[in-house]
C-alpha cells in the first residue's frame, strides 16, 4: 500500500482558506455565547477566550458548532438517532467533501503548545497558518488570514506566553486570535472529540501511506457517549466511541485491490492493542500515548468504495459489548 510520493502529487493550488471559511462560524459562536451557555472573555494580552465547559456548562450544540470550526468550515456535523446500539440511540454523523484539508489540515490536533505547567495540542484552522508541523510540508498547504482560531482540549486557559507564541507563528495580531476551550469531561468536549471519527480515519490512511490524493470524499459516524467527571474515564469513552462504535465510508480512486487492502488495514481491530477499553489501555502504559500502537486509532468499521469500478469493500466490526462496558451501562 505504501507509495513514496503519496502526498507529493496533491494539487493544493485551488484549496480554499480554512480560516476564511471558519471565521464566520467563530463569530457566530461568540455572538450566540449566552444561548449556547458559553463564556467569552479576553486574556490579559487581548485574545478572545471561549469557555465551553470549564466555568460555563456549554452543551451539545456548542460542541457541534465547535466541531465544524475544527473542520475549517469544510465539514458538516449532525446529531441524529440511530438503532445501531440499543442503549445509545444518539450518534454523531460527519461529512466533508474535502476530507484531506478539512481533517488533516485543520481538525487534527497536531500543534504542541506548552509553557511551564500548561500543555495542550492545538486543533483547528489556525494550525494551517502557522504550519509548524511536518504534516503541512507534506501537504504543501499554507493558509493566510488576518484572524485565526484554535481549539484546545483543556480545562485551563492558555498563558500569555502561549498566546504570544501563536501570534508570532501565525503572524496574526493577538486581538484577532480566538482560543476555544473544550475540556474532555464536558458535553461540548465530548461532541467535538467524537466528531473526529472521520479525521481519525484520514490520519490512519496517512499513516498507512495510502495515497492521499486518491481520497475523494468521506463520511463517518459514531455513538455519542455520556461524559464523565473523571478525566481518564471521559477520555476513554470518547476514544472508544470511535474505536468500537465508529464507522467511516470513504470514496477512493485507484484499483479494487488497493481499496480492498485499505478496508482490511484501516479498522481499529488491526491493532495489537485492540480489545480493551481505551482507559484501560492508556492506564497500562502510564498514560503515555506514544507507547500505544498507532494502528489502534481508527474507526471500528470501514466501507471503502472504489469509484472507478463501483465496487465496495468492508472491514472491521462494531462492538456493542465494549461500547456498553466503556460507556458505563448498568443492565
Automatic annotation (TrEMBL):
The keyword ATP-binding does not apply. Pfam families: MCH. Transmembrane segments: none annotated. Keywords: Cytoplasm, Hydrolase, One-carbon metabolism. Its main location: cytoplasm. Its EC number is 3.5.4.27. GO terms for biological process: formaldehyde catabolic process; one-carbon metabolic process. It catalyses: 5,10-methenyl-5,6,7,8-tetrahydromethanopterin + H2O = N(5)-formyl-5,6,7,8-tetrahydromethanopterin + H(+). GO terms for molecular function: methenyltetrahydromethanopterin cyclohydrolase activity. Coiled coil: none annotated. It is found in: Cytoplasm. GO terms for cellular component: cytoplasm. It is an enzyme of class 3 (hydrolase). Belongs to the MCH family. Catalyzes the hydrolysis of methenyl-H(4)MPT(+) to 5-formyl-H(4)MPT. This is Methenyltetrahydromethanopterin cyclohydrolase. It comes from Candidatus Methylopumilus turicensis.
Amino acid at each position: 500500500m505504501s507509495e513514496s510520493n503519496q502526498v507529493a502529487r496533491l494539487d493544493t493550488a485551488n484549496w480554499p482558506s480554512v480560516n476564511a471559511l471558519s471565521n464566520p462560524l467563530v463569530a457566530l459562536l461568540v455572538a450566540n455565547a449566552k444561548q449556547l451557555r458559553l463564556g467569552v472573555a479576553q486574556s490579559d494580552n487581548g485574545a478572545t477566550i471561549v469557555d465551553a465547559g470549564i466555568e460555563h456548562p456549554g452543551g451539545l450544540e456548542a460542541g457541534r458548532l465547535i466541531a465544524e470550526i475544527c473542520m475549517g468550515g469544510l465539514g458538516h456535523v449532525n446529531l441524529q438517532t440511530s438503532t445501531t446500539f440499543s442503549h445509545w440511540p444518539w450518534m454523531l454523523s460527519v461529512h466533508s467533501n474535502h476530507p484531506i484539508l478539512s481533517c488533516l489540515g485543520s481538525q487534527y490536533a497536531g500543534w504542541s503548545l506548552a509553557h511551564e505547567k500548561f500543555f495542550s495540542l492545538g486543533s483547528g484552522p489556525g494550525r494551517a497558518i502557522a504550519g509548524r508541523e511536518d504534516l503541512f510540508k507534506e501537504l504543501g498547504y499554507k493558509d493566510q488570514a488576518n484572524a485565526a482560531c484554535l481549539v484546545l482540549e483543556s480545562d485551563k486557559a492558555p498563558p500569555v506566553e502561549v498566546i504570544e507564541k501563536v501570534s508570532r507563528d501565525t503572524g496574526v495580531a493577538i486581538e484577532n486570535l480566538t482560543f476555544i476551550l473544550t475540556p474532555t469531561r464536558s458535553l461540548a468536549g465530548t461532541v467535538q472529540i467524537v466528531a473526529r471519527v472521520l479525521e481519525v480515519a484520514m490520519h490512519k490512511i496517512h499513516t498507512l501511506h495510502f495515497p492521499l490524493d486518491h481520497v475523494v470524499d468521506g463520511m463517518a459516524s459514531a455513538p455519542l457517549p455520556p461524559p464523565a467527571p473523571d478525566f481518564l474515564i471521559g477520555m476513554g469513552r470518547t476514544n472508544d466511541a470511535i474505536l468500537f462504535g465508529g464507522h467511516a465510508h470513504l470514496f477512493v480512486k485507484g484499483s479494487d485491490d488497493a481499496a480492498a487492502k485499505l478496508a482490511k488495514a484501516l479498522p481499529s481491530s488491526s491493532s495489537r492493542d485492540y480489545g480493551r477499553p481505551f482507559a484501560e489501555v492508556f492506564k497500562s502504559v502510564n498514560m503515555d500515548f506514544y507507547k500505544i500502537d498507532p494502528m489502534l486509532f481508527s474507526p471500528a468499521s470501514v466501507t471503502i468504495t472504489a469509484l472507478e469500478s463501483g465496487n465496495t469493500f468492508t472491514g472491521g466490526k462494531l462492538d456493542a459489548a465494549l461500547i456498553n462496558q466503556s460507556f458505563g451501562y448498568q443492565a
